[in-house]
Amino acid sequence: MLTYDSLKSLPQKVAGPAYDVRKVTSGIVHFGVGNFFRAHLGYYVDRVLALPDQQHWGITGVGLRSGGNSDRKAEEFRAQEGLYSLTEIAADGKAEIRVMGCLRDYLQAPDEPETVLALLADKATKIVSMTITEGGYNIDETTGEFRTSLPAVQEDLANPKKPSTIFGFVVEGLRRRREAGHGGLTVMSCDNLRHNGDVSRKAFVGYARAVDADLAEWIDQNVTFPNAMVDRITPSVSDEGKSKLNERSGLEDLQPLLSEDFIQWVIEDKFAAGRPAFDKVGVEFTDQVSAYEHAKIRMLNSSHLILSAAGMLLNLELVDQVLGEPRVHKFVDSVLEKDVIPTLKAPPGVDLHKYKATLLTRFSNAAMADQVARIASDATSKAQVFWTETVRAVLEGGRERTRIVYCMALLLELLRGRNEKGEKIALQEPFLTAEQLNIAASDDFEASIGLPAFDSWRDLLTPEIKQEIVRDRELIRQKGVLASLPV
């Protein structure tokens, strides 16, 4: 088991913290201590702590649940005094292993709510960060406003000084902070969500407004919510995976972590109470975060969805296996090169062709064991987010549309719920009605074009384009994915 004492005798291939972990104090409170947080924000903070006069930027993790796995996680973090190992593996198999000392404490909010609230109100706390998943911000997709109707939120609103949700904890902590005269801080989303700072502001100020309009105004004026783009593939680690990681490292780590060697964080420099020296450890600061978001969504996320749809139909489990098919690799490369890049404005200083090459290398990293089923879940919603701008640019611009039409056919074949052999696949489409799922599963190709997946560009689907979609679906059925790909 990792402890402070074990840092004195780490295996030769394992790097330890480049700072005295005993001298690190907490300046960041993070909600949602999952693998991505530990490999991303934790990674950057670990490097910051090695710089002069930065030891006050340690992290206190907060879990919003108790019982079961949550209790186990808390026990293991505490037993290891917050230490954990990170194994970074490149596409060529080269690995680097280090022990991280940035996590200084771990609290379970349901079991120690007053401790969490006191920490949020503490003057030493400068940043509240979170990874609560893209859907965790409780925003109504129709109105764009914070939903106060959620039962857990209603409970917090009825007794705001004894919260259970992240919104209740953070806003009550800010209320106490204002009362103590400690000023504002930064609320920083680390979720893979477009305009995540703006969404966070809407969520927390929206909740605060339902509690106290004056408090909401104070938060709006004194708390900053920087937008950011985060990127790093960090797979889940099974018990077997933990054993393999520990065998590789020579450690006895209860919470070993795996990630790719690539990492990126682009963020607005809007910090109300100061920030770590992130600019000295590779974080990119810009007021054009949306440009990076566009590039990531239209290149990484869009091609990820193509690979997952093809993989599900081909009955392949992992992204690297799908990309390992030469015809699939060539097709995805062509979509990016011919359909996406010519219609996408590059972020400042970014070469989109090099970015494409980097993405394809990352996707080929077998060590990540990236599951296509995970990426293919809720493909209807993802297509509207990831594909819309490219599809509209191609169709409105009168550009050659062969590949884009094929992608639409590929998606409808995925929604059918069977692979190219006719075998059922695990389809997760939580927002389709039973009637829509029946249409998707039917052989009525014309009717399936009316499914919501194409709503964002439906006005551009001429009778000719619809015929082409039907034709491509027929080709996929007749020849299979690999033989029907337009490469």
Automatic annotation (TrEMBL):
Q: Name one Pfam family in it.
A: Mannitol_dh
Report keywords, A-Z. Answer: NAD, Oxidoreductase
The Mannitol dehydrogenase C-terminal domain extends over: 289-444
User: Which PROSITE patterns has this protein been placed in?
Assistant: MANNITOL_DHGENASE
Q: Which SUPFAM superfamilies match?
A: 6-phosphogluconate dehydrogenase C-terminal domain-like, NAD(P)-binding Rossmann-fold domains
Gene3D superfamilies, A to Z: N-(1-d-carboxylethyl)-l-norvaline Dehydrogenase, domain 2 (1.10.1040.10), NAD(P)-binding Rossmann-like Domain (3.40.50.720)
Domain of life (superkingdom): Bacteria
Sequence ranges assigned to domain Mannitol dehydrogenase N-terminal in this UniProt record: 27-279
Query: Which InterPro entries has this protein been placed in?
Result: 6-PGluconate_DH-like_C_sf (IPR008927), 6PGD_dom2 (IPR013328), Mannitol_DH (IPR000669), Mannitol_DH/Oxidoreductase (IPR050988), Mannitol_DH_C (IPR013118), Mannitol_DH_CS (IPR023027), Mannitol_DH_N (IPR013131), NAD(P)-bd_dom_sf (IPR036291)
PANTHER family associated with the record: MANNITOL DEHYDROGENASE 2-RELATED, MANNITOL DEHYDROGENASE DSF1-RELATED
What is the official name of this protein in its record?
Answer: Mannitol dehydrogenase family protein
> Which organism's genome codes for this protein?
Bombella apis
